[in-house]
Amino acid sequence: YRDRLRVEMRERRLATTRCHMLSETADVFDILIRAPHDSHQLRKLLDFSPSHLVVCAYLLSKYTLRWQFCRVAALLCNRAHLNSMREVVNPAKDHKLYTVARRHGIEPEGFELVCRRLR
């Protein structure tokens, strides 16, 4: 997590547009929030401020869209038990889609093909 945090902080410093800055800030928040849940203490989270609302809204939207994307892809692959599909992986990364498909008993190549068409 420390290495990932360094990379994201560097990308945040190099961001040139507001949208890119928001995206990189959200990635930093994501690492800081997730690290303690995986037993890694990086640093104390910042005290909440109103500007964090925008980042939190961005994260919520990002993961909700990824969750919905995976559910739609599973539905198109005739996966009957959609309630078990709770994945929020980046749909642009085929290797992650392959892992999701295997985890849920979906034929991986077909799932990747459906995801490519949805993108």
UniProtKB/TrEMBL annotation:
This is Uncharacterized protein. It comes from Dactylonectria estremocensis.
